[in-house]
């Protein structure tokens, strides 16, 4: 019995070690959105000057849509931009943007320089709508089904891996489902 | 050429470490003196080789050798020299190099200063140090080699993360690592003792100075880190309960417990298996800190670049070191002889209470830090644990700890009179009540009730420690001159304890003051505006641009006045580093040593005419760091106690004709 007490630290450590090992498969940044499987919050955002269409609940219905929250001042946004462009141009995914706390002229200059893959962009000057969407920081990306429900959320810049393993299969699934 | 020499020295160090971890161990098992004798020269050789490697890496950084990928990734030709040198350890590979430098320096120090250790114990301690060295040298060479070249060499580097380009942070890692790694010596002693199957007071006396040295440097390292967070992150906070901070705080708490339980082993030959376990746990927590920071399994504001291969490697090291030593512990510890008995109310009893509370505190921080991971792994959902949890669980443990900290030194060994001890503390009690009354009067009852509890604790710790010292030198009971003589002749360890305990009180006062009574004003200000914070008026004079060596900055000029009297002119900056495209906040702080006025220049508003300015008034905040440095000083003073000095016990024993068996 007395020996068991001396064995206890080892057993506890083994438990912690197993948790560490399994922790490698988890991503602590993979934060679930409270809005998953819920309709996107009520909103309506004006377009960028010179653009025709803004972004609202109505625009999001009808097709599977990727909504990307971005800003010209955000470096990771620039990093993920080619990936989003490829998604829109090569994979035919409808991508719409929320321009987060940005100056209109900066955003336009940024899009001119880096290319504009967005079907439409809503300007969220004060970040109010982003708060309703539960945005932690830019960039963030949401995937919505044809009914305008949020089905998937990614925090931080998109990577080719996320696109291949999560977004494209999900897009396929959502398109065939309804 | 020189990076290759460094690389070569590192490989050679690995082979020396292999010899160091094997030969002396066999020698100790077979009683072969020559084989045991390998330990010392091997430890010194390993240190020299690692120093050569480290020097080579530093050289590559200093001369900006951009054919070395580590230099490209973390340096820039325009970077100031201080940060070229500190940039060596400001990245993952270099920090591991610093880690191994510390490890081998401690190993060699055991070899050099451990002349009066029994040969078999010394051989085993150094061999265990060698094993840790093998693990980390392999880790560096396989997963994190800092000497890799790039072809073609780029023209310039990517620069060091600007947040790290700061004097406070430049010296933070060396202290922190010296602390972390210093506990490896206590660990090696524990493992060696388990192999020998013997723990006695002499063992504790040999372990204690190493633990003290590690504890003191870790204290300084944590204090520097929190000071850096205070003025560099621009929020005016000094502790965030962030996983990385907790990773350094857990070894500190466990190390503090170890420091105190080793006293019981040394003086009373009790608590032996517990002390061994603490030594293992303390170093394991240091290893775990290294692991957590680099594995990416927890989110933190300041983590290193994350690479799962490295995480797995460190996890394997952790499993071998901690798992192996705990296995050895489970086999050997039951057969260790238990020592002296004591009553619950006694010096030993108070140290046991100290250990129980410190262990609980460690466990609290451990659970809070890893709870999100545990839940996630068990598929019970994602949570984050924040300061409210730690404040709610840590403070209730800390309060009795501080109360008992003062009473403990008044208790006699074996059996003590608690009422008698308390009656000798009446002066400290009166001083505490007076301090609380003053605090309540000055703040006019403002702030939470807990703040007054904090003030009471701080005063109790400070005046209680002084009272204990006064008691020892019989102040005011015998002539002052005699008291002075007594004070001079007191052992340094008594001085050290008084300094450390009293300074703990000072630090608590600082933590309480700034947590309870800080005032903050955050507003958009245009040049010409005035805002108030605390009793101060802060006038925004103008904004200019300043050019630094590798950054350009917007610098605000603020005039601080109090009741119309000019107090200070503060110049906070917002620096942009073009190479890394990062912006840092350089807060400007005016300190009166009683409080700080803190101004940070934030982002410009949309139209660019106003700036978000954060103003803080932090009462007593400098005391946090004054207290922490005092605690470190207490540790160092205690370290200079003559009974730890090389050869001192033996010389004394010889002089007294070997009459002191319990030395």
What does this molecule look like?
Chain A: It comes from Azospirillum brasilense. Chain A: This is Thiol:disulfide interchange protein. Chain A: Residues 34-176 form the Thioredoxin domain. Chain A: GO terms for molecular function: disulfide oxidoreductase activity. The complex is a heterodimer of chains A (178) and B (663). By secondary structure, chain A is α/β, with parallel strands linked by helices. In chain A, 42% of the residues lie in helices and 19% in strands. Chain A is built from six helices and seven strands; from the N terminus they run αββαβαβαβαββα. Chain A has helices at residues 2-23, 57-60, 75-89, 104-114, 128-132, 160-177; strands at residues 44-45, 55-56, 65-70, 94-100, 120-124, 140-144, 150-155. In chain A, strands 5-4-3-6-7 form a five-stranded mixed beta sheet. A two-stranded antiparallel sheet of chain A has the order 1-2. The radius of gyration of chain A is 20 Å and the shape is elongated. In chain A, 37% of the residues are buried. With 663 residues, chain B is α+β, with helices and mostly antiparallel strands. Helix content of chain B is 62%, strand content 11%. Chain B is globular. The A-B interface holds A 2-3, 6-7, 9-10, 13-14, 16-17, 19-24, 26, 28-32, 75, 103 and B 273, 277, 280-281, 284, 291, 295-299, 308, 311-312, 315, 318-319, 322-323, 326-327, 329-330, 333-334, 370, 372-374, 376-377, 382, 581, 606.
């Amino acid at each position: 019995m007395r020996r068991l007490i001396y064995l206890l630290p080892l057993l506890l450590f083994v438990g912690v070690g197993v948790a560490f090992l399994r922790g490698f498969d988890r991503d602590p940044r993979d934060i679930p959105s409270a809005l998953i499987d819920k309709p996107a919050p009520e909103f309506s955002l004006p377009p960028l000057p010179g653009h025709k269409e803004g972004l609202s609940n109505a625009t999001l219905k009808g097709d599977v849509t990727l909504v990307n929250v971005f800003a010209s001042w955000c470096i990771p946004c620039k990093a993920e931009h080619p990936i989003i462009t490829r998604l829109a141009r090569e994979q035919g995914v409808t991508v719409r943007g929320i321009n987060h706390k940005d100056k209109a002229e900066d955003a336009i200059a940024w899009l001119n320089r880096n290319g504009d893959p967005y079907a439409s962009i809503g300007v969220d000057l004060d970040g109010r709508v982003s708060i309703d969407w539960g945005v932690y920081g830019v960039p963030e990306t949401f995937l919505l089904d044809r009914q305008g429900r949020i089905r998937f959320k990614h925090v931080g810049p998109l990577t080719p891996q996320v696109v291949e393993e999560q977004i494209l299969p999900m897009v396929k699934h959502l398109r065939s489902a309804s | 050429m020189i990076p290759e020499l460094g690389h070569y020295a590192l490989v050679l160090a690995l082979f020396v470490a292999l010899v160091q971890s094997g030969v002396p161990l066999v020698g100790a098992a077979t009683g072969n003196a020559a084989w045991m004798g390998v330990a010392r020269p091997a430890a010194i050789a390993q240190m020299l080789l690692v120093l050569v490697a480290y020097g080579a890496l530093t050289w590559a950084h200093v001369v900006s050798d951009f054919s070395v990928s580590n230099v490209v990734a973390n340096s820039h030709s325009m970077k100031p020299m201080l940060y070229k040198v500190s940039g060596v350890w400001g990245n993952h590979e270099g920090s591991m190099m610093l880690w191994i430098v510390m490890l081998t320096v401690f190993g060699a120090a055991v070899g050099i200063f451990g002349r009066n250790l029994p040969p078999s114990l010394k051989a085993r301690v150094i061999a265990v140090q060698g094993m840790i060295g093998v693990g980390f040298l392999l880790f560096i060479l396989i997963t994190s080699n800092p000497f890799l070249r790039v072809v073609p060499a780029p023209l310039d580097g990517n620069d060091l993360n600007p947040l790290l380009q700061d004097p406070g942070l430049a010296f933070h890692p060396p202290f922190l690592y010296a602390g972390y790694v210093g506990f490896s010596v206590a660990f090696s002693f524990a493992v060696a003792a388990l192999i020998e199957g013997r723990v006695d007071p002499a063992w504790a006396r040999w372990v204690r100075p190493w633990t003290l040295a590690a504890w003191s440097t870790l204290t300084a390292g944590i204090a520097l880190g929190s000071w850096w967070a205070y003025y560099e992150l621009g929020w005016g906070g000094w502790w965030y309960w962030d996983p990385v901070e907790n990773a350094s705080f857990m070894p500190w708490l466990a190390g503090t417990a170890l420091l105190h339980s080793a006293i019981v082993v040394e003086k009373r030959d009790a608590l032996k298996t517990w002390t061994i376990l603490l030594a293992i746990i303390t170093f394991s927590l240091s290893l775990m800190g290294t692991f957590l920071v680099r594995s990416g399994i927890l989110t933190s504001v300041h983590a290193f670049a994350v690479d799962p291969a490295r995480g797995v490697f460190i996890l394997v090291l952790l499993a071998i070191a901690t798992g192996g030593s705990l296995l050895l512990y489970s086999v050997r510890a039951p057969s260790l002889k238990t020592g002296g008995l004591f009553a619950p109310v006694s010096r030993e009893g108070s140290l046991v209470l100290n250990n129980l509370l410190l262990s609980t505190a460690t466990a609290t921080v451990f659970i809070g830090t890893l709870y999100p991971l545990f839940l996630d792994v068990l598929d019970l959902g994602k949570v984050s644990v924040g300061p409210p949890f730690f404040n709610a669980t840590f403070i209730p443990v800390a309060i009795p700890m501080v109360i008992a900290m003062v009473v403990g030194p008044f208790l006699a060994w074996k059996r003590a009179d608690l009422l008698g001890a308390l009656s000798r503390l009446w002066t400290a009690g009166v001083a505490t009540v007076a301090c609380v009354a003053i605090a309540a009067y000055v703040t006019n009852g403002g702030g939470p009730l807990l703040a007054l509890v904090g003030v009471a604790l701080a005063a109790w710790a400070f005046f209680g420690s002084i009272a204990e010292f006064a008691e020892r030198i019989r102040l005011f009971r015998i002539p002052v001159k005699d008291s002075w003589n007594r004070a001079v002749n007191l052992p340094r360890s008594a001085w050290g304890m008084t300094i450390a305990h009293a300074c703990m009180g000072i630090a608590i006062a600082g933590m309480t003051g700034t947590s309870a009574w800080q005032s903050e004003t955050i507003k958009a200000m245009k040049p010409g505006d005035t805002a108030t914070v605390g009793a101060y008026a802060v006038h925004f004079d103008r904004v200019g641009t300043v050019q630094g060596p590798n950054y350009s900055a917007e610098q605000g000029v603020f005039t601080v006045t109090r009741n119309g009297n000019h107090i200070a002119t503060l110049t906070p900056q917002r620096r942009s580093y073009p190479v890394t495209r990062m912006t840092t906040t350089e807060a400007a702080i005016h300190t009166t040593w009683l409080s700080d006025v803190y101004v940070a220049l934030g982002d410009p508003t949309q139209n660019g005419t106003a700036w978000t300015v954060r103003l803080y008034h932090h009462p007593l905040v400098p005391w946090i760091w004054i207290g922490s440095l005092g605690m470190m000083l207490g540790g160092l003073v205690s370290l200079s106690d003559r009974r730890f000095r090389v050869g001192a016990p033996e010389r004394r024993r010889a002089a007294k004709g070997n009459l002191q068996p319990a030395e």
